[in-house]
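yo

u said u wanted the structure for the complex thing, so here. seqs first:
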Amino acid sequence: MLKYFRPDKLEDALVALSEYPLTLLAGGTDFYPARVGKPITEKVLDLTGIQGLRSIQQTDEGFSLGALTTWTDIIQAELPSAFDGLKKAAKTIGGIQTQNAGTLCGNICNASPAADSVPNLMALDAKVELKSMQGIRTLSLEEFILGNRKTAKKQDELVSNIFVPHPGKNAFGNFEKLGIRAYLVISIVMVGVVAELNEQDEILNLKVAVGACSPVAQRLRLLEKECVGQRLKSIEIHPKHLELLDPIDDVRASANYRNAVVPELLKRAITGVV
Amino acid sequence: MITAEKITVSFILNDTPQTLSVNPLRRFSDVLREDLCLTGTKVGCDAGDCGACTILIDGKQHNACLTAIGQVGGRKVRTVEGLSKNGELTPLQQAFLDEGAAQCGICTPGMLMAAQSLLYKTSNPSEQQVLDALGGVLCRCTGYTKIVQAVLKAGQDQSSPPVPKSGNAVGTRMVKVDGRKKITGEEIFGADQAPDDSLWLRAIRSPHPRAKFTYDDPEKVLQKYPGLVKVLTADDVPGNNGFGIYPHIKDQPVLAKNHVRFRGEAVLALVGDQVSVDCVSEEDLGLSWEPLEAIRGLDGALAGNLEPVQAQFPDNTLSRGYVKKSDVEKGFSESYAVAEGIWTTSAIEHGYIEPEAGYACKVGKNLEIFVCTQTPFMDQEEVAQVLGIEPKQIRIIPSAVGGGFGGKLDISLQPLVAVAAWILDRPVRCIYTRPESLASTTKRHPVRMNAKAGCTREGKLTAFEYRGDFNTGAYASWGPTVADRVPIHCTGPYFVPNVLSQTRALFTNESPSGAFRGFGTPQAAIAHEALMDALAEKIGMDALEFRIKNALRKGDRTATGQLLENSVGQVECLESLKSRWIKWRKEAKEFNKKTANTKRGIGTGCVWYGCGNTSMSNPSTMCVGINAEGKVTLYNGAMDIGQGANTIMVQICADALGIPASQFDLVMGDTDLTADAGKTSASRQTFVSGKAAQLAGEHLRAQIIHHAEASEKATIHIEGEKLIAKDDSGEHVILLSDILPQISGDVLTGKGTFDPPTTHLDENRQGNPYATYGFGAHIAEVEVDTLLGTTKVLRLAAAHDVGKTINPTQVEGQIHGGIAQGLGLALMEEYIQKVSENLHDYLMPTVGDMPEIEVILIEDPEPLGPYGAKGIGEHALIPTAPAILGAIKHATGVSIHHVPATPDCVLATLQKAGKNG
Ligand code: FES
Ligand code: FES
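structre next:
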């Protein structure tokens, strides 16, 4: 068995995964930083040779983002306005180097509480497709990410794509990220929103998720429910909406600070959708 | 046993097909540098955080450190070496050279590649596009301003600065003498060169801030790893297992014995092939730790409940500083208004993009060390006592230095590679990883300051009192210098009749604090400037007017009683900012009327700073020679760490000698070839070594005149081996090949030494600690989001009295870079052990964080300096943070007493004052 396997067919990758535990490698933007000054001794399955995985496809049901879809691919793709939040997030990640190499799927598999794609994908109701020799499983993103750096992916599975159902006709996305500097920013708090509006700009349907304020980004379903029928500008945020959030003190900010700015960031993200 | 299977990878590298057999998981950056010898691609972090490794893959920018070589097959790669063709620079490279966009040059290849990817897409990018393109590359030297300008100018109507003629180099924008290699990737930094048969060294470091430790017999691990040659322990150090800046405090062990005092301290060093030294684990070594309760923070140092950090300092006090002028009590009692406060600052990392690197190699009975350093001659002495040999047995060959800022004034890997190479008689190299560099090297002192100032009703300062406790970490390093320098400067550039200042440097089990651009005065400036604002407000005077009123002037006496006779441009600096100050304040007021939660404000900060060592002899010697072929060489011992000493010294010496600067060759820093020009620190090189360069040039000129029997006013030309001195009486020709060469190979040489005159300071520290001072002032505009606590610096104007501008491009570059570091200090930088041991948790400003900057150069000549010049390196940084904090106060009404003023800190302060929203 080679220590490094870079197949060009998905089937070969799945066969290999069924035989050995392998570390998956794609853009390398999480893999290498975790191994600074350390020897790389594990066996690695490099997915970047599988061309079919780098695609964004529209089907009758929605959009399929292949496992190798990079942040730059998202930025450049023609996608409905509900994806605007995800695009905005893509532009705030690292520098362009990271956007060119890093993948969305890698971001969700790394499952950092500060993963930039997650609040947006949650707001888009994204599903995760997992493939293995056993077959295909589809999980919602919330089912997929179990905790800080923990996912439901089994040893022999890989995430083949992220699926986003067709957003409503008049749906708009937005993203707000709070960090300390202009580029190469890791979020203190972030908010992803998709809002479907009627002709009077009243909310028909709202999906909001907050990142970096809990081990896994959280959808704020109570807020979403209460906002239906309201105008964007008249939305009010109350503590009860934020009960699921449980921020911690870390190097970037205190829990108090996070709690203090979440409502404001939510307001900005929601009112900023159009 | 580690075996790495190899695969074959073929790709196009700089237009040429390449096929390699390699371990596919190796970082592409590593393969480029080590296997293909393309060291133009730099490594600053190996983690995607700094962008120094940026290359183009299929025309797009990628971090080579995040790319597995196995992924490169079939792709088209371009590195910095593949930019210019046939020695001809691309328009982008030319613009970098012309604009002075490269200082140390370690970020330059990454910057160039990132910019080039944009220029492939659009030849005429907007500024925003340029910022976005460069957003992933960090630069610690330039403040990005000239880099952005260079990219915008590339390929547009570019015009290069003219090459100065004979006698005209000083004052021109002459391009850097070493600029070209910095933009082609040819410059050789510490990690870029080592003998082929070098062994690698990796230090094993303490994961605990304080602990006892034991380890197994190293023989065991040597048996397990045949590629491992030696495990160095404290017992292997042949001389003194201790180093430190002060001759009487060699307190930091090369390798700790039994007991560590900070996280990151070296305990063992592995020497062998690269794979083996990387693979040995703590378990392999049988390292076992007994963590002890650590002394943390200033309160911990003062508590006295734990064993002191170092037994010889029972109260954890390393040193004290003091200045007393007249009677502060009386001064305060006569004051109409008094302001006081407490301020705290955080540990700050130097953040040079080049981690420490180099090698040592035994040559006969001597040892050569190639290393990035700010101070080759101190390294030489330090390593000599560690090895127990004579300094002259050691030759320090400095590499190009990828930034220093004070951090490379202390030794790092020098004694480790020296001991290994000495014992093993094999060349030994070492490159620090970024986490290792962050954990093990010095920081800017965190400080708690208590300061108080008073003034009369008319706004004349009456008294100033300052107490500062500096957290000096586990070892002395430059702690005493900081404790000494701060009291002298703590009033700011103002005339104060009564002064009392006291400082202490206190040991803790934290990173040793050392020298960092300004030696404690940037911290102190936060206090003195806040007090100036507070007093001005109390008596209802404009903050800038208040400063003008109190600014030091010629004829004033400083806090140490020194009479300032020359070159005191403080008032001019402030006056030059006045129109902007008024206009900006008005504009901010207008803006704030229209906004609820976005507030703008304008603040100011001032600096004065003595050039050179404090009340101490600190001579520089420079040599210049002409050889038989007519080649002129400046032997420059003044380390260029990016700030441009190489160019400045040539400019000065060329004019003194009277030949064009373009005819100069240069040797930098080599302890065998150059004379001691002291440390690159304390803003002393332009002033002290520059003067020595002038004297050396004049000395050589005098000899030429003498030899040629020409008159004093003669002009000098060199044409091959003919030296022609022309005066009213005609041409006098010297045939250089007729003169007997000296050991250096030169036939005519000049030497100059300058030691700035200072005096002893008495028991109240009264006297003349420095021969000259630089002065300056900044004004900054910020925008604060009062709901989120975020602060953006929008614009900044900086006026500095530099005596005489030797090279405007370089002086501006120093100021831009100082502002960037000052901005980082004010708003985002805080080093926390264990937590911020990487460059995504230790935040430094990116290209998008910089304000629009205007630089105003004031020239009040210093008669002692070369052509009137004095220093600027540290002055540039000091006023920035106070100006930003003052601007936040002006914008929001709240005073920030702790830096960094992160969004968290600002919002908490606003909330406390009921001013959020
Ligand atoms: S070395 Fe690659 S980003 Fe720092
Ligand atoms: S010139 Fe950019 S880091 Fe030195």
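The longest helix of chain B spans residues 570-594. Chain B has 23 helices and 33 strands.
cya
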